[in-house]
């Protein structure tokens, strides 16, 4: 096999490249502890569950008709995401045992792969002969995409080429089946994912066919005659009409709103952004920006959660952001990070990093318990524990799900967290996320090491120290967070004039940097009361408390039941204080509020007399930490 | 056939008896126009739909396997409710054409009835041999009950005995199949209804077996071993565990909360109250009161709507009263009227009449359009029109439903409205509902005619004039509405001292009444801001506007979009004024409120700056009139 493997970087790519995972280290601090819990607890825990539920052994293809537990259509993706997470972890923490677990799965994969390169446990074992007959519903290309992502990550972590070769063969097979050329199927997956995966495969192999295939999948989606009509009729069924669930109501360049299943929508946008970055296609980039704006200006929870409806796990309509019934699937919130991160590499605009940070610290981190063993599939912004009995809404994090997309997704996000913090351009280093860490870059052939010291997001100061063998001129682009009204930067003790150098939310400090240079940021973090747009009807008359990047919530355990009845006057002083023993140490917000007295109603449900209120002290904790103590009411938006 | 038919009244019955339909006339005014629209438009309209959809012709039993549109398990009940409505209408408005429509169905019924008395179009035509095999789900006894109610009503309206005789035969058959005796099935219907119907049949025929059978159904429900387990296993299936959906989690005397499907729950309570009234069983009456309190103190919308969850059409948990996703099925709200009305006859306590009035004027009347041709199945207290696309929530009234229980239910309620206004005790006449009307009673062998003149609920005065051939001493019991803080009564121009004579919300005026005596009530109707209990979390910080018995709402057509953003300060003056051209003439409420400016947000979805507000005039219309102009937002609870 003649497989060219190289880190491929063309001029058409975005301005920035994410830092290489190998070069980033989280020593201690906020993220280090989450990444550590992910590595020590979540990864082995999830492997065990993949094993117990049959997902690992499915690769042996020994399931026989009539046996219980047939390999499900999306099982391959669960294992793939676990391998990807393991690979990221191996990058910084080599572990022979983990590596041998992956290798044995890869060995089964090699044996499972059909002669023509096809690879899918469900269709090979359960429905042979049915492959590619239901692209809309059956996740084949989606699973292929996740396997490709895993293969790239595992190759980059270990240098081992076996899995990558398997997936290149599979990609070649897919390329032979799908496309505009005569004799090929003009299909595309109901669940986007393969688009972004093929670009990853292209980047690591340099094989342009993979980029072209990604481009085909992006362009073909939503064209007429509609492929989903054709394949549905071919199966003898009536076509459905809700193409928008699959982002296939029309071609991407004609979409003005991001509709349908939120994970699909944002995986698709991520793939579109990748293709736009690689091809320089301005019409695609314009489509990305249009859809981006629609999401962040009208369809995103304050937690960075997306997709408000349980039915269809989907986006609904502009400003429709119900709190208790919020879906905001962990995978969708992660997918928003993916999309934001890709847009940020194309254009160093802090609006992308702001959203990425918002999602990471709130709607993504809420997806996993502090101990790393329990997961939210759905991330509501309000909860009454009794509601779940009747509405099947979330009450507590679960250890696993029949459709187990979220747990390994958060595992790969955390294991690969180093990608999101820094980027590099031709002569610039950008810091997107403030987090205690070190990073190495090559700038003009020289190694630059940055050391970031901070207790962010709890504290407002960040120190960045330069380590260089010799002085080097480059731009240090520091993100000035959108939530921060008055950021300050000192360089070697001297205040910098930020206004002059800030472009699109990044303070771009060009200097001939020397070792020992110290950049000190102060990002004042007063407690802010945030309002939502008047059209976001569920939040009218309410405020969310935010401090720095963290959105806060009230929990019953700190504030008693009937949280909705709490009223926080605009002039009430809010105090942030660090509680070292609370939930591993956290800054909480306290203040005086009012609530009515539930006594004295004499069993009346309604009355025309105005109720008296009493003063109470409220205590809010960061949203991502909710449901780590005991079940109960929770609420982000507080009445004013 | 030796069938004794008599109006049966024992000492054990409740204190009061509803006025006979024949003796009540609505001349003009609020209810006369609704009853007229019901008679002229709704009744023929619904017959046509029953005919078009196959419900009428199903009685011919000529459906054959393989044909489309087999008679559905609940079709019999739709036709039965239409016959009952037609019968009530015939009571006051004889109409040969309508009578012949009913007679022809009754003729088919007679032919359809099996030799043993069994009668159900679905099981006779579609599933012969399967009768009584799935009491929980298949509505057989429910349909039987509705047919009995129709038969009683049609007999009372026309004196014709044919349908009554058919249903007595069916009741006799049911009595031979069900009961505690050896060889009988110890079952009961998944959808209560037959209990109250059997009591009606007992009252009109005097046949005690029917009362005993009703008593059996009431007592057997929820006993162990659980009949639904036994019959489910007999069908080869696994038993379910949500007995509470069917009010069968335990016997009625042990129930402390009213759970499950709201219509079933309240039909059941109505039947239990009937059995309690007829038997004098205090433990049953105590159960009724316990369940009554649970509903009205914790589970009833301010509109008198009940059953908050779409899933299961059911009650959920105490104080769980979501507004936009409210189910509050028209049938459930009607069923609450049935239950309240029965409790009111047992005990002349205005709490029952207050709830009956609340439901009638709000959550029941909202179920039908002003023109009588469109129906709500579901009666939410807030609506955003785009929500319905994603949540399958209500947007507009429909002309019919696959499960068409609500349209004929509201038709029979309106046609039989005369039952709810007055009652009679041994030497008292009670007025529960103020409505322009006349009524005749026999008191001590003498005919008393009351003439009620009022523009209630729009205006606050009610005049009651006595017409008697000779003076008669009796108590005139006038309901002092719970919503009214300062009712006044004058008798022949002289103020009565209400406190001395008011008992349980009824001013009991004992006099030797003479013809021409005039009682004048004044029920001051200021606009009230009503609060909900602090545990009713969806309504915290909000008020509902109420004037007299009417609950008000804001509609988009009067107030522009984004209704949630409207804030009505406590000190804002609210003015009630009559608009003769609005929706057939209605009192509207106007006042000054505030809302934020949706402009100036610069495409931001969230921001930490406090928004400025602007003053706006709001206009609220009675809730029952909403959605009679054009679709749009609606909202009962308004932020304060």
Helical content class of chain A: 25-40%
In whole angstroms, the N-to-C terminal distance of chain A is: 67 Å
Oligomer: homodimer
Strand content of chain A: 15-25%
Q: How can the largest sheet of chain A be summarized? A: 9 strands, antiparallel
Query: Cα-atom Rg of chain A, whole angstroms?
Result: 25 Å
Largest interface by residue count? A-B, 60 and 60 residues
Task: List low-pLDDT spans of chain A.
Answer: 1-14
Mean pLDDT of chain A: 94
Structural class of chain A: alpha+beta
How many strands in all of chain A? 25
Name the shape of chain A in a single word.
globular
How many helical elements of chain A? 18
Explain how this protein is built.
The structure is a homodimer of 640-residue chains. Chain A is α+β, with helices and mostly antiparallel strands. The termini of chain A are far apart. Chain A has 18 helices and 25 strands. In chain A, helix 10 packs parallel to helix 12 (330-346). In chain A, strands 5, 17, 18, 19, 20, 21, 23, 24 and 25 form a nine-stranded antiparallel beta sheet that branches. The first copy, chain A, is globular, with a radius of gyration of 25 Å. In chain A, 35% of the residues lie in helices and 19% in strands. The interface between A and B is large, with 60 and 60 residues. Strand 17 of chain A pairs antiparallel with strand 22 (606-607) of chain B.
